[in-house]
Design goal:
mainly alpha, disordered N terminus, 2 helices, about 55% helix, about 60 residues, elongated
Length: about 60
C-alpha cells in the first residue's frame, strides 16, 4: 500500500513536499531505497532546508 503523501514525517515535512523536492534535484526516492547514495541524500536534505528557510523568511517579511 502506498504511503499517504499528505502526511508529515516526524520532522513535520510532508512526504509530498519531500517527493517534489527529490524530483527537483533528480533523486529517486522511495520508502526504502538501499541504493540511495549519501551525496544524493545530502543534496535532497540541503534543498529541503533551503526551501524551508526561504519560506520562513518570506513569512517574516524578509
Amino acid at each position: 500500500m502506498p504511503a499517504n503523501l499528505n502526511t508529515s514525517d516526524h520532522r513535520g515535512v510532508s512526504k509530498k513536499f519531500t517527493q517534489e523536492t527529490a524530483s527537483e534535484v533528480g533523486v529517486q526516492l522511495a520508502d526504502y531505497n538501499p541504493e540511495l547514495k549519501a551525496r544524493d541524500a545530502g543534496r535532497l536534505g540541503g534543498r529541503i532546508t533551503q526551501k524551508l528557510v526561504n519560506a520562513g523568511k518570506s513569512q517574516m517579511g524578509e
